[in-house]
Specification:
206 residues, alpha/beta, Rossmann fold, four-stranded parallel sheet
Length: 206
């Protein structure tokens, strides 16, 4: 290896070490590719850095979306592209698609999905929750019966207030299958307490 090549190899190691310390993982992966493209296209140093910075931003946004999706704990990820509106002609398709924009979340409003079992309420709720995570919003999807069990356990451990405060950190909470399974009187009271605390502070889909 020539002295020049050896110096370049050392510089590369040092550069990537600094980039990792600055948490610029995408720079580490793409700096050589972008440099080669910039040289081939005779681009300026500014354009080279711009290409790297754009890729870093895109990668960070995607990682953030994936974190939001993981935190939401959506059981089965579905969007509206796989929903058959023709099966439910009475459903206001335009209204559902407007909800995807998330304005109701900004206003901490509630969306109530009514209908018999098997009509796709969970699918619609899931699609709206997924859209919210893609907008970088903090979402939590609950099966209502499981949520009541968590609230009962929190009560036994004296941490209902802490549980509710944690829920208040979200921007959207989905309560799936609310009303399909009866609760004990204590469970119903805790559910009422939970929903009351979130009212006009966190958007709900039920």
């Amino acid at each position: 290896m020539s002295q020049s090549a050896n110096v370049q190899a050392v510089d590369k190691v040092v550069l990537e070490s600094y980039l990792r310390k600055l948490y610029l993982a995408t720079f580490v992966r793409y700096h050589e590719t972008c440099a080669a493209e910039a040289a081939q296209n005779n681009e300026s140093y500014t354009r080279y850095l711009l290409a790297l910075a754009e890729q870093e931003v895109l990668d960070r946004e995607e990682r953030r979306r994936q974190r939001r999706l993981k935190e939401a704990k959506i059981p089965v990820v579905k969007d509206l592209s796989s929903f058959d509106f023709a099966q439910i002609p009475t459903l206001n398709q335009q209204k559902i698609r407007q909800l995807v924009n998330g304005d109701y979340i900004d206003k901490a409003e509630s969306v109530i999905l009514l209908g018999n079992p098997g009509l796709g309420k969970t699918h619609v709720a899931t699609a709206l929750a997924l859209a919210a995570t893609q907008q970088m919003r903090r979402v939590r999807f609950y099966n209502t019966a499981a949520l009541v069990n968590e609230l009962l356990q929190a009560q036994d451990e004296g941490r209902v207030a802490a549980f509710i405060n944690k829920a208040l950190n979200h921007q959207l909470i989905v309560l799936d299958e609310l009303g399909f399974i009866p609760f004990s009187s204590t469970g119903a009271q805790l559910m009422f307490q939970f929903c009351s605390a979130l009212y006009e502070r966190v958007a709900l889909i039920v």
